[in-house]
Amino acid sequence: MVFSFHVDEMNEKIRASNQMSVSANDEIPAVRLYLDESGGDDPGTPQAVVGGVLIRYSFLLHFEEEWDRMLETHGITPPIHMREFGTHGRFADISPRGRRELFLKIAELINFHKIASMAATLSNEEYKANVDEKVREEFSVYGMCFILAAVMNHKLAASKSYGKRIAFILDTGNPHKDHIVKAHATMIEWQKESFLNVGGLYFEDDRDLGILQAADVVAWGVRRRTTGKPFGYAFELINDILNKQEGHGEADWEAGWLKEVSESVMKRYLEAKVSANSL
User: Fold this and answer.
1) How many other C-beta atoms can be found within 10 angstroms of the C-beta atom of residue 209?
2) What is this structure's pTM?
3) Phi-psi category of 155—alpha, beta or left, where left has phi over 0 and alpha has psi -120 to 50?
4) Cα distances (Å, whole numbers) of residue 86 to 7, 93, 206
5) In which order are the strands placed within the sheet that holds 47-56?
6) Does residue 1 lie in a domain region?
7) pLDDT by residue for the chain (279 residues), tens digit each?
8) Which end of the chain is more exposed for a tag (fewer CB within 10 A), N or C?
9) DSSP symbols for 125-181
10) Does residue 138 form part of some domain?
11) How many Cβ atoms are within 10 Å of 246's Cβ, its own excluded?
């Protein structure tokens, strides 16, 4: 697994997060992970990605203000979706210079405010080869990526002795919403046996939250880099976000892990089926 964060530069951010307070029932988590997906079953995009930004709530409010100011300066109506910079997208007419200035600011805002950015990747080929067909009906490739992102999030939190739950927030328009919900429910079940820092799962409109638009930038950038496609003059600044020296981490599934998760889910599926039949 490729999973690394530049520890020294992140210590202060994590320490500040640990000092944040949450409500007694953790309804307002101090730390939140905003995620988006990129890729699909299309042979042209063989790599699926779930990625985003880990941020503490106290920084989020300032981030949103600065993000809105940035969009206004560049004359952009939210939300920013990377696919809309294509030939027929809303942002197709933004000049190369204008795009570069925009992404210089995007990278600056994300790196300043984040605790970390992270992404989990999985190729459709590996997913289909190692995950049982019945499990694939319950968990899409994005469900698996969400599980891996949650594990990464836990490893980072545990490395800093952060023992509180962390909320997950995704765009309400996510086409894989049902699979993410099932994957999150599985993580909650696993957490009954071992604490994983898994908090609630929420869906918000990315038109209202710049941080979800930032998650789209991270997920798109990781998929682009993973599949070996060039960023180009304007978008190459995304590499500044995806730099481990700036607190970025990535992980990809290995075949053995996929099979273990598939077998675990199948076991629960069969147990539930036997229990239902015995009623």
Assistant:
1) 20
2) 0.86
3) alpha
4) 36, 9, 19
5) 198-204, 166-171, 31-38, 47-56, 116-123, 248-252
6) no
7) 444 444 344 344 334 434 433 333 345 689 999 999 998 655 556 889 999 999 999 999 999 999 999 999 999 999 999 999 999 999 999 999 999 999 999 999 999 999 999 999 999 889 999 998 888 887 889 999 999 999 999 999 999 999 999 999 999 988 889 989 999 998 999 999 999 999 999 999 999 999 999 999 999 999 999 988 899 999 999 999 999 999 999 999 888 888 888 888 777 766 765 666 665
8) C
9) HHHHHHS-HHHHHHS-HHHHHHHHHHHHHHHHHHHTT--S-EEEEEETT-TTHHHHH
10) yes
11) 20
What token pair was written down for 120? 């989990």
122's tokens:
């999985």
Q: Residue 139 class from Cβ within 10 Å (0-12 exposed, 13-18 middle, 19+ buried)?
A: buried
Report how far residue 138's alpha carbon sits from residue 155's, in angstroms, rounded to the nearest whole number: 25
CATH number for the domain including 144? 3.30.420
Does residue 54 sit within a domain? yes
Total domains in the fold of the chain = 1
Cβ count within 10 A of residue 274: 9
CA distance 18 to 31: 9
CA 77 to the chain's CA centroid: 23
